[in-house]
Design brief:
three-stranded mixed beta sheet; mainly alpha; transmembrane; Ion_trans_dom; monoatomic ion channel activity
Length: 690
């Protein structure tokens, strides 16, 4: 009996932990599988997985063409080690999840396929290398698959699903855009093709239809404006009307349509994803409650001792004082048990960062109260009370002392350290911005999007890795960089005579090449910025062939039109959510209760001795204010800054409010199959009540 109760507790802890971290892994519920599942989700296992994922990606820095060359044997051993770790992680996952679910999950098949293909490619490449035959490591562009498809990267997969779901609508707009581009290109050919005009480089102007299409596509991005217009504009001022009409239709209207379509579809599918998470969390909490419930009168409840054991398993680092505080919130009337309504909110409670503060008086307040309470003392304490100010002042003082010391001992006359001091002093102006309420909305939005910026950073890394590896295979060695005083042949043409008199060579862009992984990343970053990207495209097309421009167009479509627009969409949604919360000050009843206790829980005011009897040493200490009510001892609780709430959490809270408490929720399979157009189901009781 005791063993069964312990197994139920461990299983319930797995459900609560999944609800807390929004995991939706369908694991097996046998005792052995549950223990393996807890191990699978351990932070050390996740950290090790990410370490080997990024080690596998970083091997491109050491493989040919390498930034820091390592022997082929060394990189091969490291790659095999990474692949074995991935295989072990996948095997571990297969041990905890349902077999039919495992083999139907596409991401598991992708990982296994990537491992098999990588080992095959590595073996073939190694054998050919032994015989002196140069070949292509075609499996390297598949390495981002491991970053995408492991269970830990669910945020990146969500972003990719948003892209996939948005593509159909984008396709229709893109087809209309291409039709407009082709029509304007045809008109340009008829208008300017027979005028015998020349570009600034002395080349024929708008003679070739495909080149016209490319030049006008670049004009949509404004990268070649007004250069592309000048030959026609010099010939006749009326021709400017053609380019003005083109820019209005394609740059301002179609590009805005792209953003509108991306934002509309992203918002729709994001809300569907968040709604699934909300239902999944409710379902898991109910499953945990059903495992631990006992009958109390006419209702089922979870006993206090059982609840404490559960919280200690789910959040072992939580202090006793914090756990007692959570119990006070869940069992407000101190009945000795937690009802269903309070239990299902446990995941929310655990996600709220509560800081325990121990109030103590400053030693001077005890030893010299008159001096500590004097006006000069209050002024000094007011000056150093703000941590940001204290840090800046201390850093500036240290830099000033260091500068004076260096000048006196080493005849140091540089002003660099003093410049740093001045910069640090300027940073204090941030407090002015933070003190204005409307600016706080913007600051809160910027802080709240940081976690999602990491997601889009991972997505950008995936795109960069794929395009960098393709670029290295296609353009490696075609362009070389030479120092300014080099006497090498064709040094001024980046080592390739095909670039003679080109904008690429005249702009001294020779260092922007695909000769190694790091240089490729820099080029892709510059292409993301868009400015002068057509110079890069033309340069690499000159040294390879005109079809090379398709590579740069593809990168622009994927990175700038799709991914950047989705990122902009997220920022818009984040701002709208933050703005609405800022106006309405929406907070859950749980947070309000914690805030009330945080402001009021002190030793001399508590009516229940149990809370303080179980409290440990405080995690933080708070100095008492000399001007405030004197308190020799006590504890208070406070909510960490609301600025650190993620946008996903805020959206999820909105959808959870739409789920009736008496609704036990859908099954796991029904939740996963929810579509964006599905109505929010209600329980029969709620419908009849309505």
């Amino acid at each position: 009996m005791a063993e069964a109760a312990e197994q139920d507790l461990l299983l319930a802890a797995a459900f609560v932990s999944d609800a807390q971290y929004n995991r939706n892994i369908p694991f097996r519920t046998s005792p052995e599988a549950v223990r393996l599942y807890h191990l699978y989700n351990h932070w050390m296992m996740r950290t090790a997985t990410y370490f080997f994922i990024f080690l596998n990606l970083s091997l491109a820095l050491f493989e040919e063409p390498a930034v820091y060359p390592l022997p082929f044997l060394a990189t091969s051993v490291l790659e095999v080690l990474c692949l074995l770790v991935f295989l072990g992680r996948l095997t571990h996952f297969a041990k905890v999840t349902l077999h039919n679910v495992f083999w139907k999950d596409a991401k598991n098949i992708c990982i296994m396929g990537a491992i098999l293909l990588s080992l095959t490619d590595l073996g073939i490449y190694g054998v050919l290398r032994l015989y002196g035959v140069r070949s292509i490591r075609w499996s390297r562009f598949m390495r981002p698959i491991f970053l995408i498809n492991f269970a830990e990267s669910r945020q990146i997969r969500r972003a990719l699903r948003s892209i996939r779901n948005t593509l159909p609508e984008i396709t229709y707009v893109f087809l209309l855009f291409m039709f407009s581009l082709l029509m304007f290109s045809l008109m340009a050919l008829k208008l300017f093709g027979e005028r015998n005009l020349q570009t600034a480089e002395g080349l024929p102007y708008f003679k070739n239809y495909l080149e016209i299409v490319f030049d006008l596509y670049v004009l949509v991005t404004t990268a070649n404006s007004p250069d592309v217009m000048m030959p026609a504009f010099d010939f006749s001022s009326w021709y400017a009307l053609f380019f003005i009409a083109f820019v209005i239709v394609n740059t301002y209207i179609f590009m805005s349509l792209f953003l509108a379509v991306v934002y509309n579809n992203y918002k729709k599918h994001l809300k569907n994803e968040i709604r699934k998470l909300a239902y999944m969390k409710r379902r898991k909490m109910i499953e945990a409650f059903n495992l631990l419930k006992e009958e109390e009168g006419e209702q089922f409840v979870v006993r206090e001792a059982r609840w404490k054991q559960l919280v200690k398993l789910v959040a072992p680092d939580t202090s006793n004082s914090h756990r007692e505080l959570l119990l006070r919130i869940s069992d407000d009337e101190q009945k000795g048990f937690v009802d269903k309504k309070s239990f299902v909110q446990l995941a929310d409670l655990l996600n709220i960062q509560v800081v325990t503060l121990k109030i103590r008086r400053h030693p001077l307040a005890r030893w010299a109260p008159a001096l500590y309470g004097s006006a000069p003392s209050r002024l000094l304490r007011g000056l150093v009370r703000h941590r940001f100010d204290t840090l800046i002042i201390f850093a500036a003082l240290t830099a000033t002392i260091l500068n004076a010391t260096l000048q006196s001992t080493m005849r140091y006359n540089s002003q660099q350290i003093l410049d740093i001091v001045f910069i640090l002093r300027v940073l204090r102006l941030i407090r002015i911005v933070d003190s204005i309420q409307r600016f706080q909305v913007i600051m809160n939005t910027l802080i709240n999007i940081v976690p999602t910026m990491l997601t889009f950073g991972g997505l950008t890394l995936v795109v960069y890795c794929v395009f960098a590896i393709i670029g290295m295979e296609a353009f490696h060695g075609k362009i070389q960089y030479f120092p300014a005083n080099s006497n090498a042949p064709h040094a001024l043409e980046c080592g390739n005579p095909a670039l003679k008199d080109s904008l690429f060579a005249r702009g001294k862009y020779c260092k922007n090449n695909f000769n190694n992984f790091a240089s490729s990343f820099i080029v892709l970053m510059e292409l993301t910025v868009v400015n002068q990207w057509h110079v890069f495209a033309n340069g690499f097309a000159n040294v390879t062939g005109q079809p090379a421009k398709l590579y740069f167009i593809a990168f622009h479509i994927v990175m700038v039109i799709i991914i950047v627009n989705i990122f902009v969409s997220f920022i818009l949604e984040a701002f709208f959510v933050e703005y609405s919360l800022e106006k309405s000050e929406v907070e859950t009843a749980i947070e309000q209760k914690i805030q009330e206790l945080g402001m009021g829980v002190q030793e001399d005011e508590l009516q229940h001795e149990q809370l303080l009897d179980n409290m440990e040493s405080a995690e933080h200490e708070l100095e008492g204010d000399g001007g405030a009510k004197a308190q020799s001892k006590g504890l208070v609780f406070k909510i960490a800054s609301k600025r650190y709430r993620t946008v996903d959490a805020l959206l999820q809270r909105m959808f959870e409010a739409e789920i009736p408490l008496e609704d036990e929720g859908l099954s796991f399979e029904e939740i996963l199959n929810l579509s964006p157009s599905s109505a929010i189901p209600r329980s029969p009781s709620s419908e009849s009540a309505a």
